[in-house]
Amino acid sequence: MNYNILIGGAAGQGMDTLASVFSQVLHKRGYQIFTLQDYMSRVRGGHNFFQIRFSNEKVKSHSEELDGIIALNQETLDLHIDRLRPEGFIFADKEVKSEDKRLITIHAKDTAKEVGNVKTMSSVTLGALTKLFNMDEAFMKEIFSDKFDDEVTQQNMASFERGQDMVESRYEVGEGNPKKTMLIQTNQAIALGALAAGLKFYSAYPMTPSTSIMSYLTRKAKKAKIIVEQAEDELAAINMAIGASYAGVRSMTGTSGGGFSLMTEALGLAGIAEIPLVIAVIQRPGPATGLPTRTEQSDLKFVINASQGEFGRMVIAVRNPEDAFYQTTRAFNIADKYQLPVILLGDQYLSDALQTIEPFDLEKISIERHLADPKPYENGEAYNRYELTESGISPRLIPGIVSGVAVNIDSDEHDIMGNITEAAEVRIDMVEKRARKFELLKKELHEPELLGEENMDVLLLGWGGTHSPLSEAVDLLNEGGEKKYGALVFGDIWPLPDKRLLDKAKKAKTIINVEQNYYGQLADLIRQETGITMTGSVLRFDGRPLSASEIVVKVKEV
Amino acid sequence: MANNHEFKTFETAWCPGCGDFSILETLKGTLTELGLNPYEVLIVGGIGQAAKTPQYLNANGFAGLHGRALPPAAAAKIANHNLKVIINTGDGDSYGEGGNHFIHNIRRNVDMTHFVHDNQIYGLTKGQSSPTSDIGHVTDFTPDGVINQALNPILTAIAIGAGFVARAFSGDKEHLKEMMKEAINYNGYALVDILQPCVSFNKVNTFAWYKKRVYKLTGDESYNPNDKIQAMTKALEWGDKIPLGIIYKEEKKSYTDHFDFLNESTLLNIPYEKELIQSLIEEFVQ
Fold this sequence. Notes:
The complex is a heterodimer of chains A (558) and B (286). By secondary structure, chain A is an alpha/beta fold. Chain A has 19 helices and 21 strands. Chain B is α/β, with parallel strands linked by helices.
């Protein structure tokens, strides 16, 4: 059994607090959560909402159908009432008018005033909401006292208790799971993954929906002894990250498509100068400013092809917070090993969704710097930054460490010492050297994750953020029983790992790509790399996330 | 590159008679006299003739992108503040393509030295006007003369808040060396705008043109480079008389001075703390 509650209103009405405290209560009680956030690009007003879906079992993704609506204004009720189940409930204060029998008026504002602090009105609603789900005041005091002083904590508790008295219990969620979980967003997981990988320098320019990576790192900077620099623009952001990486610290930048457009020249600098770099590109709908606070997967081809010239890069589409954490630590190792840029591709849906997952395990990660042993050079051996090697990977030293050794890098084509050259034979050597290491990288790609039936009639293909709705959709489709459904969801996406894809595509009768874009960019990429074509497509490009039930309906229509 | 402990210069692609030669020679002399070892020095350039300097001196070199010399230079210094970071690049790279970084790296105030080889012309692309070309300057690309106001780098740098702003001339190597030493020893962002004739493409601002106009502030007791208003007035002098020397100087904290943890160690050498990462994970766990 799982429940899905929408909390909506205008920006500034306190819905963030209500949603975050309710999520915390659920988390502390041992329930699994998937919280979706939908907001407009404005600081005040507009229509924004959270959808909190919870259960005592795994909640794989968000859902469209609602069990309850908490309408902080009339607009919320009018916009979402069609999605409310017949037996659902509506909570609203007296200003919201409706003839609907499901409406329960919660006098939150008046009650909070009586308690002596109008700002505690969210706690009145929270009291009523928890009571409806048969939850008592456990953990409430702890949560409030973390945020407020004694007096305000007391007021919030009083409002909460008054709220509890307003309704009768109606739902049973069952016992929570005592097993510890993390409640985290994917962007936070990327930031935490970077710290776990030994990140020391992060430079970025704020851009929705990537900013939360920077804000988490900034909050932890002093404690973690790292530098987080807000650059003057994305050109500076990436060039700074490259400069810090050249000087030997693990560094990273993050942005969305618009900012990445400005970074493309420097992406090539990291390519030709062979400087390790990790870039988080958190997608939103484009082109240009597009829909700033909404979701899309339309930058796949862009990040694979960005920048002039030819060079190897890796693109990893993160699929959920857990995947994001481990893939981020791996991205740093790969960037260091092959001395090239690695792009972590996320999206707004993932970046703002709050999920319960298994705690990250540091025993599962390693830090592999792949720096050259300085000893021979300390003993006088000549050092060449771009030595031609069989693997294509040249010995990398950090400048300022070995006396007598200079480390030279160049954005021009260069010789083995890093000095500018136009010699045709050197150019050929260098292009081939860089190509060799890229070929080597292809040997350690992760195949896409298989969901559902292993021997499927219908093969669904997705990448990155659609992992969550796809994993639930496949379960729902297989409940039908007539056909076997399975999905492959790509994490490593460039270079494209094709072994599992070729194997499954051979046997499946129908192949459908499921993507958040108009043209089907994964389908294009797969056709380009493998010749496999799709039977049909499920695409969404209105800036809103695909849900499992929507995928089920559309897949059946193909 | 063969290992070595002395600063050496390599064959260049500059035109015979270029002002860059004396800047390179003077830089080599300066670094040697300061007792630095090549491995401790990082020379950073963007794109342009001057920006090729990292290629011609046997220190660590970062030859980056056009206009983007300052950001990687600043970050490399932040990553390892034991490196002496010296940017050598031109007026187009510094003030045109890289204008935004010029503004904000003054604000950032990382301890690094910015030598702008200012020849008031674009050399690498063969003779277009630069941000410092004077009004009326005729080039193949401005046949009726430049109509855009020239940028005054000295005045701009002081106005934005640079703590060390100086001007030198490639034709006066002794004075140039003195300015280079002062700038390198300054703790913070230091700008030296070095006037330099371009023999191939600038037929206006020639060696003789500069020679006739420049004069040194050295020895002028009435001039106080710590006085910002006096400095800004001095910075406005251009034309018949062009002042050389430290125009403005002010002591202040550089970027890395603001971080306690960088007083004890370079960012590079700060050890990884697994327990800390574990505690950050725990913050999300219930």
